[in-house]
From TrEMBL:
Its EC number is 5.4.4.2. InterPro entries: ADC_synthase (IPR005801), Chorismate_C (IPR015890), IsoChor_synthase (IPR004561). The keyword Acetylation does not apply. It comes from Terrabacter aeriphilus. This is isochorismate synthase. Pfam families: Chorismate_bind (PF00425). Belongs to the isochorismate synthase family. It catalyses: chorismate = isochorismate.
Length: 431
């Protein structure tokens, strides 16, 4: 329990003053089991992988930004919040003390704003050590009770799927058009996406989705920020005490369910010139964007095959040593959009997405993650995800996209998008 000195009122500080307290917590209960049952769906926050990470709820502070400067505005706001925060941190590692969660729209002209949220309660775990952080605007902050395990979430009931803005037929058409534009030399690669609307008979509890995603997709980061929920296998960037890492994915094969066949497919994926070419574009775009911020960088020569229950991807883990004080969010902003979700060359590919895709991606395929007061943090690409409808608790829009290159075939890309929708479709099932 802390009694911190009251700040003078009215405060001359331009930013809000938050009072933050982190203490070790003696529990081994799964992080996701702490997310409370009685909060609004868009008030639950998660960044969890293999039982570790952070979950949060309640809103101590939040911020929205729009347009091409959405990242810079968020960074400025965060620096102000961090500068004025009064922090007492008894654990002292990345993710403890003051932390925000964030999620950014893919496109600068999206109707969706970028969101940063500082939750009022965070439970985190790293290397087996668990902690509790409370954040308050009240300088007389007293520590909350140790969070308990919440009641189990209810399943969403029967779920019906319907076309979103881009039907499978529209998608095949857009892919064919993109292949034509690639042949004409406009771009080398463009990533096109589509959406699928799921309507459940009952309210969709994000805690249900998160638990199911975490159970089945242990090679992913299971996230929830302001109603965007998913399990991404792609880490845009992590900054952890001077070490920068990124997991680049591009090049995909659908799994068959037959392990022997899947191994043969994995071997063919690792040799496929179409996929290797697509992968190479994505790795190069990440390495080039990180280079100005790094003193040394390790980019493996050949990708490995990442096995997920629904698909396999060509994957490369880039590691680098930070050479400046660029925060994880600044790094994420300079990496976005990578060739994995935009294309190559980036600017022209993004224009082509605007021309051919016919939907607002919202925060799908944008950076999603968290950051602490030192700028350490982790930002994934919001893939294998859905956006809960803020107006209808029983509806969620799911998204999936595919990298289109010269050799792409529209029907295969429709099938690949279907495979990429499986994690969220399965997570919605009630069985
Ligand atoms: C765009 C998505 O995935 C991206 C595209 C990939 C591809 O085309 O091979 C692979 C992984 C991701 O970088 C998605 O899942 O929606």
């Amino acid at each position: 329990m802390s009694t911190l000195p009251a700040t003078e009122a009215p405060s001359p500080a331009p930013g809000p003053t938050v009072v933050v307290r982190t203490v070790p917590l003696d529990t081994t209960d799964p992080l996701l089991s702490h997310l409370p049952a009685d909060h609004r769906p868009d008030d639950l926050l998660s960044w969890v992988r293999r039982g570790e990470g952070i979950v949060g709820w309640g809103t101590a502070l939040s911020f929205e930004s729009r347009g091409p400067d959405r990242f810079a505005a968020a960074e400025t706001w965060w620096r102000e919040v961090a500068r004025h925060a009064v922090v007492r941190d008894d654990v002292g590692r990345p993710g403890t003390g003051l932390v925000c969660f964030g999620s950014f729209p893919f496109a600068a002209d999206s109707a969706e704003p970028a969101r940063l949220v500082v939750p009022s309660t965070i439970v985190g775990r790293r290397d087996g050590q668990t902690w509790l952080t409370t954040v308050s605007l009240d300088p007389q902050l007293t520590l909350l009770e140790t969070p308990s395990v919440a009641s189990d979430p209810e399943p969403p009931g029967d779920v019906a799927f319907s076309d979103g803005d881009v039907s499978p037929a529209d998608y095949a058409h857009a892919v064919a058009e993109a292949v034509g534009r690639i042949a004409a030399g406009e771009v080398d690669k463009v990533v096109l996406a589509r959406d699928l609307v799921a309507t459940a008979s009952g309210p969709i509890d994000p805690r249900w989705l998160l638990r199911r995603l975490a159970e089945r997709y242990e090679n992913t980061w299971v996230f929830a920020v302001a109603g965007l929920v998913g399990a991404t296998p792609e880490l845009l960037v992590r900054r952890d005490q001077g070490l920068i890492t990124s997991r680049v994915l591009a090049g995909t094969i659908r799994r068959t369910g037959d392990d022997a066949k899947d191994l043969a497919l994995a071997a063919s994926l690792a040799r496929s010139s179409k996929d290797l070419e697509e992968h190479e574009y994505a790795v190069r775009s990440v390495a080039e964007a990180l280079a100005p911020h790094c003193s040394s960088m390790n980019v493996p020569e050949a990708p490995f095959v990442l096995h997920l229950p629904n698909v396999m991807h060509l994957a490369t883990d880039v590691a680098a040593v930070s050479a400046d004080d660029a925060s994880s969010l600044t790094l994420a902003a300079s990496l976005h959009p990578s060739a994995a979700v935009g294309g190559t060359p980036t600017a022209r590919a993004v224009e082509l997405i605007g021309e051919l895709e016919h939907m607002d991606r919202g925060r799908y395929a944008g950076p999603v993650g968290w950051m602490d007061a030192q700028g350490d943090g982790a930002w994934g690409i919001a893939l294998r995800s859905g956006a809960l409808d803020p107006a209808d608790p029983s509806q969620i829009t799911l998204y999936a996209g595919c990298g289109i290159v010269a050799g792409s075939d529209p029907e295969s890309e429709v099938a690949e998008s279907i495979a990429k929708l499986i994690p969220m479709r399965d997570a919605l099932a009630s069985e």
